[in-house]
Amino acid sequence: MPQLPTDIKLHKASKTLELKYASGETYHLPAEFLRVHSPSAEVQGHGNPILQTGKINVGLSKVEPAGQYALKLTFDDGHDSGLFTWDYLYQLAQRQDELWTDYLVELKTAGKSRDPSESIVKLML
Fold first, then answer.
1. pTM score, two decimals?
2. Residue 65 belongs to what domain range?
3. I need a labelling partner for 7 at 20 to 30 A (CA). Which of 16, 36, 64, 117 fits?
4. Helix residue spans in the chain (DSSP H)
5. Is the pLDDT of residue 121 over 90?
6. Tell me, what's the pLDDT at 3?
7. Exposed (0-12), middle (13-18) or buried (19+): which is 46, by Cβ within 10 Å?
8. Nearest-CA neighbor of 36 among 3, 84, 90?
9. Residue 105's domain is classified under what CATH number?
10. Which phi-psi region, left, alpha or beta, contains residue 92 (left: φ > 0; alpha: ψ -120 to 50)?
11. If you ran DSSP here, which 8-state letter would residue 125 be given?
């Protein structure tokens, strides 16, 4: 049985998605975190994930239900593919610290940045 949030709030100013559960758990998931962990083929790469870079400023522009099983998130960088199922959102929420740390290590290892302007500067050098 999937963990269904009892309340979902989009906080545009802080660029976070707040999820509350009947158990009393509350999670604040930053838009950047959700964007780099999107379940879309563009990000997941059909089993070979594609490292997302330069997403530090991304926000969420829209959150809408996708049937009874997921949320469709629209990001302000135009990304809107991939459905965040209730189970996937709950896994992201519970593993947020671990997944974020892994992402930062991947960026560093690849010599990439969360800041899109740093990627442009590197290309110009």
1. 0.92
2. 5-124
3. 36
4. 31-36, 41-44, 86-94, 96-110, 116-124
5. no
6. 86
7. exposed
8. 84
9. 3.30.2020.30
10. alpha
11. -
Structure tokens at 39: 């379940």
The number of domains in the chain is 1
* Residue 18 in tokens: 């707040």
| Measured distance CA(38)–CA(89) in Å, rounded | 10
The per-residue pLDDT for range 54-87, each reduced to its tens digit, is 999 999 999 999 999 999 999 999 999 989 999 9
Both tokens assigned to 7: 């309340």
C-alpha dist (Å) from residue 43 to 8, 14, 105: 24, 23, 17
CA distance 40 to 78: 13
B/e letters for 23-34, b = 16+ CB within 10 Å, e = fewer, are eeeebebbbbbb
